[in-house]
Amino acid sequence: ELVDDVEDGVVVLEELVEEVDDGVVVLDELVELVDDVEDGVEDGVVVLEELVDEVEEGVVVLEELVDDVEEGVVVLEELVELVDDVEDGVVVLEELVEEVDDGVVVLDELVELVDDVEDGVVVLEELVDDVEEGVVV
Q1: Helix (H) or strand (E) holding 40
Q2: Following CA atoms 55, 58, 60, 64 in sequence, which dihedral angle do they give, to the nearest 10 degrees?
Q3: Quick one: pLDDT at residue 123?
Q4: pLDDT band at residue 109 using 50, 70 and 90 as cut-offs
């Protein structure tokens, strides 16, 4: 009976060794899983760092875009001022045109006056001729 008990004990020990071996295998698999998780976390951190870098680059691009828009607004404001200046210039030119028109009217009147003076000169010359003829007579 003792031999049977020892043999039974050996069988139990063999089964226990197999279970320990199975446990070791499971532990090895757990270690591999932990390694995989660590690698995954490291990869995830790298991806997140790259994503943060891309977001920061995007912010820089947006800031540059805002600067460009602000510069565009300044240019548009300057263009509006230029249009106002042009409109003011058009008003000045219209006033100049009116003054030129007035000057033309004055010149027309001067031409008429010159014509009248010439007509008067002709009349005076005829009168002088008549007087000279009268003196001769």
Answers
A1: helix 2-136
A2: -160
A3: 96
A4: very high
Q: ∠ at Cα 117 (116, 122), nearest 5°?
A: 95
The CA distance from 105 to 113, in Å, is: 12
Alpha-carbon torsion (80, 81, 85, 88), positive or negative: positive
Q: How confident is the model at residue 131 (pLDDT cuts 50, 70, 90)?
A: very high
Distance (Å) of CA 129 to CA 12, 61, 124: 169, 98, 8
The DSSP call for residue 131 is H
CA-only gyration radius of the chain, Å: 58
- Which tokens in the block code for residue 61? 């691009």
In whole angstroms, what is the distance from residue 80 CA to residue 87 CA? 10
pLDDT computed for residue 136 by the predictor? 86
pTM score, two decimals? 0.45
